[in-house]
Amino acid sequence: MGTVEPQVAQSGDVQEVTDGFHLVIDALKLNGIDTIFGLPGIPITDFTRMAQAAGLRVISFRHEQNAGNAAAIAGFMTQKPGICLTVSAPGFLNGLTALANATTNCFPMILISGSSEREIVDLQQGDYEEMDQLAIAKPLCKAAFRVLHAEDIGVGIARAIRAAVSGRPGGVYLDLPAKLFAQTMDAAAGKNSLIKVVDPAPRQIPARDAVQRALELLKSAKRPLIVLGKGAAYAQADADIRALIERTGIPYLPMSMAKGLLPDTHGQSAAAARSYVLPGADVVMLVGARLNWLLSHGKGKTWGGKEHKDWGGQKFIQVDIAATEMDSNVRIDAPLVGDIGSCVSALLAGIGSSWVKPPADWLRAIAERKDKNLAKMAETLAKDPTPMNFHSALNVVRDIIKANPDAILVNEGANALDFTRSIVDMYQPRKRLDVGTWGIMGIGMGFAVAAAVVSGHPVIAIEGDSAFGFSGMEVETLCRYNLQVCVVVFNNNGVYRGTDINPTGGPDVAPTVFVKGARYDKLMEAFGGVGVHATTPAELRKAMEEAIRSRKPTLINAVIDETAGTESGRITSLNPSAKKK
Ligand SMILES: Cc1ncc(C[n+]2csc(CCOP(=O)(O)OP(=O)(O)O)c2C)c(N)n1
Ligand SMILES: [Mg+2]
Questions:
Q1: In angstroms, rounded to a whole number, what is the distance separating the alpha carbons of residues 299 and 306?
Q2: Residue nearest to atom 13 of ligand 1 (CA)
Q3: Contact, 319 vs 183, CB < 8 A?
Q4: Ligand nearest 414 Cα, by number?
Q5: DSSP state, 494?
Q6: What residues flank ligand 1, with Cβ below 6 Å?
Q7: What is the whole-number distance in angstroms between the Cα of residue 497 and the centre of ligand 1?
Q8: Judging by DSSP bridges, how do beta strands 530-534 and 408-412 pair with one another?
Q9: pLDDT recorded at residue 226
Q10: What is the 3-state secondary structure (H, E, C) of 126-165?
Q11: Which of 108, 437, 438, 497 could pair covalently with 164 via S-S, beta carbons 3.0-4.6 A apart?
């Protein structure tokens, strides 16, 4: 229990007192939180010092958005809310994008922000960094709380933790006005006011009839398919999920961050035959995957529908913790509401040992497509063009991950994202961390820092050159904490490609084009890390192997053919095109 200087009460007795600073720290520690990702300044500078002194790991960033992304992904990896700490107004706003992104992606995090004096803020009298932060945060997160009195800190932290991790996880905002930190109270009373949250994410057991309904529908399928989402990865029910897939014999499709839940090389993976299984399946079981844009909303041509919004004829079973997810895009014939672990184990119990495997013709048809596509991919990967392109570079990354399956792969960009997802096989759960539901740029270095800090495993960040720029300054953070992160910048001189021309012939380059031949490796060298300039797959391979071996923060500037990318990577179709030519 942290205390401040003893005070002498009027009676003459020495009274142990504590304050807001220490109560917040003690409340976090009491709940098993050991790391804070943040950026100091008024009113939380002393808080960061005291937290460090109290044995918390305080990871300081160069921009709050990266600290926020770090907290969010730490939450995803650990099922404990990641903590991001920011200063008032501008710092808070910088962290807010990460909070909103965490909520969208169902990552549990708590953004704790200092704020200015309530009386002045509410009368809009122009305080230092004045802003009604609670009101602004509210629509962007699961829950938002403010604590005004030291004796309420325990409740405030407990509520924030519960809100972040229970049910569907997400972002929570906790507003701590500057005045709160210095408030004092009796140390024993303070200690008593803290709450150690019991069972913060209670299991939600699915109803028996819902399990039965799901199993009957699955049993009736001629062409069944299971789709694993990142909710399935988050659940840490890895063995049961694998058993479900293997005991039913049903082909499965991993969403991006569910890759590795089963090794991507698994015989039942239908990832290489995605465009065949989605329209072909008659019953689809979604496990922790939402029918959002990433799955074309469960309808339209991707699913065999005639037109853009037409139903493809599939029946759906959806396993999700949120009942409100059901029927969000198409009819869900068998909703199975509960936490993924409980739902999957209930399904397993119902499946027993005599489950009939899916019809052989369905499996054979998938295997044929898969073999054909994988052979085509192998051919492309074997090429060694000059200059290096996405495929020849990713062939190297693919080998490195295969040799180091415990390494965590962080990935962002457009082409740099889409090609990596399809080419680089993952072998273990929760090893692929990427742009998620929003396809957001800027998660790269925040995710990389947190992945290294939380896991202790090597981290490899495959970054488009544009994507990297959003959080690039954090290479200093990588060096400062000496984190074993190998950043590979796929440098194709711009957003999507580096070949656009300014149609006016004026001196400005096109909006998608960057400085040609930029040397991102020098940025890493500026802070004492290892910088490598790689123009061939052989150079890239040598540098990545050395980075893994040395464990030193490394940035490899991988020069990629500037003509190789496509507009928006794989999602060109979402880009509105002008009618007027
Ligand atoms: C916050 C945010 N801003 C802008 C975008 C739009 N956007 C999508 S991909 C991308 C960058 C693509 O370029 P790069 O990272 O170099 O990848 P490449 O396709 O060149 O490999 C941008 C700016 C976004 N997704 N998120
Ligand atoms: Mg690029």
A1: 9
A2: 495
A3: no
A4: 1
A5: B
A6: 413-416, 439-442, 464-467, 490, 492, 495-496, 565, 569
A7: 11
A8: unpaired
A9: 99
A10: CCCCCCCHHHHHHHHCCEEEECCCHHHHHHHHHHHHHHHH
A11: 108
* Ligand 1 atom at minimum distance from 419 CA: 21
- Which tokens go with 448? 């990389």
The count of other CB atoms within 10 Å of the CB of residue 31 is 19
Ligand 1 binding pocket mutation candidate from 66, 415, 466 (most atoms within 8 A of CB): 466
pTM over 0.85: yes
Mutate to test the pocket of ligand 1, among 441, 500, 512, 574 (most ligand atoms within 8 A of CB): 441
Whether the CB-CB separation of 91 and 113 falls below 8 Å is answered with yes
Find the ligand nearest to 390 CA.
1
Token pair listed for 517:
């031949």
Please name which ligand lies nearest the alpha carbon of 418.
Answer: 1
Query: What single-letter amino acid sits at 22?
Result: H
- Residue 487 contacts residue 468 (beta carbons within 8 Å): yes
Retrieve residue 241's tokens: 């999920």
Which atom of ligand 1 lies at the shortest distance from residue 465's CA?
Answer: 16
Between CA 323 and CA 377 the distance in angstroms is 40
According to DSSP, residue 504 is labeled T
Looking at ligand 1, which atom is closest to the CA of residue 416? Answer: 21
Residues in the chain: 581
What CA–CA distance (Å, rounded) separates 545 from 486? 10
Could you state, in chain order, the average pLDDT of each consecutive group of 10 residues for the chain (581 residues)? 61 85 98 98 97 98 98 98 98 98 98 95 93 98 98 98 98 98 98 98 98 98 98 98 98 98 98 98 98 97 95 97 98 98 98 93 98 97 96 98 98 98 98 98 99 98 98 98 98 97 97 98 98 98 98 98 91 80 59
**From atom 9 of ligand 1, which residue's Cα is the shortest distance away?**
414
In ligand 1, the atom with minimum distance to the C-alpha of 412 is: 15
- The Å distance, Cα 560 to ligand 1 centre, comes to 16
Cα-to-centroid distance, 387 and ligand 1 (Å): 22
CA pair distance 234, 218, nearest whole angstrom: 24
Number of helices (H) and strands (E) in the chain: give both, helices first.
22, 21
Q: How far is the CA of 493 from the centre of ligand 2 (A)?
A: 6
255 contacts: CB under 8 Å, gap ≥ 6: 227, 228, 229, 230, 289, 294, 295
Q: Which of 80, 100, 97 is nearest to 160 (CA)?
A: 80
